[in-house]
Specification:
It contains 3 helices and 13 strands. The protein is mainly β.
Length: 278
């Protein structure tokens, strides 16, 4: 039997439709906080903050720069894990803080002492958000202290995702920089599930985004954030991450000081690793 061109075309369309019908959909995975009660997670945070400052319009003046390094080793003990949140006790075992600023010795020593031995009871949402934080005596602590001790961004998506899918989250900036405490700016980041470990529990996520000034500060701030994370899907915990934050800001001192505005460039490089020890 001789088939015409139209017959061949119709057959091709039928085959294509059949393939589309039976082709498996891309697998979706749920990335969320699900550690096991009773486990202890050992975390090491390494962070370097480089800040340089210049006076706009004064090209002859060299930029002043300060480098601060922070290393924190801590334990996170999982006390309770429910469908909507996880309660953990985080204990700072050791903290090391150094600065290239010769005049910051006392501040550095005080900050290091305040970190070492600190204990916080944290309630974390499924997406990693710190919902509440209290110290060993039950008193509420600042969001700054809680974010610094968890050192894990609220990176998990709120729904199941497939490889290649993206989601957007907003996060506070890492501590450090010329803008002082939280409230000057935040990061608006897009996360992407890049790949899944073949026959294994690991998920690999990348991140990129912008630094967005908070509307109430009146400061000129811009910048970028990039990073890569490794997530244990079984445990629902970030086991390795590398994040780089670059921020440029223009800060005007109080009028009584009599100085012009200063331009700051801040680069924060952060590495966080978590080891599971039972």
């Amino acid at each position: 039997m001789i088939r015409t061109g139209s017959d061949v075309m119709r057959a091709g369309v039928v085959v294509a439709l059949m393939l589309m019908t039976f082709a498996p959909a891309r697998a979706q995975v749920m990335l969320g906080l699900r550690p096991r009660v009773g486990d202890t997670l050992h975390t090491r945070l390494e962070q370097q903050t480089d800040v340089s400052a210049t006076l706009p319009g004064n090209a002859a003046a060299p930029a002043r720069s300060v480098t601060t390094t922070l290393t924190v080793s801590s334990r996170t003990i999982v006390r309770a894990s429910q469908g909507t949140h996880t309660t953990v006790l985080t204990i700072v075992d050791s903290a090391s803080l150094t600065s290239s600023d010769a005049h910051a010795g006392k501040l550095i020593a005080d900050a290091q002492r305040s970190l070492e031995g600190q204990q916080l009871v944290l309630q974390l949402g499924v997406d990693g958000t710190v919902e509440s934080a209290r110290n060993a005596n039950g008193a509420a602590v600042s969001r700054d202290a809680a974010d610094a001790m968890t050192a894990m961004p609220a990176l998990f998506p709120r729904k199941a995702v497939s490889v290649g899918e993206q989601w957007t989250r907003e996060m506070p900036l890492p501590a450090g920089g010329p803008f002082g405490a939280r409230g000057a700016a935040h990061a608006r980041a897009t996360f992407r599930l890049d790949s899944l470990q073949r026959a294994g529990p690991l998920a690999f996520v990348s991140m990129h985004g912008d630094i967005v000034p908070d509307s109430t500060t009146g400061m000129q701030i811009s910048g970028t954030i990039t990073g890569a994370m490794q997530i244990d899907r079984v445990r629902g915990w970030m086991t390795d991450s590398r994040v780089v934050v670059l921020v440029k800001s223009l800060v005007a001192p109080p009028a009584a000081v009599g100085l012009g505005p200063m331009r700051f460039t801040t680069r924060v490089t952060q590495r966080l690793r978590t080891m599971d020890k039972r």
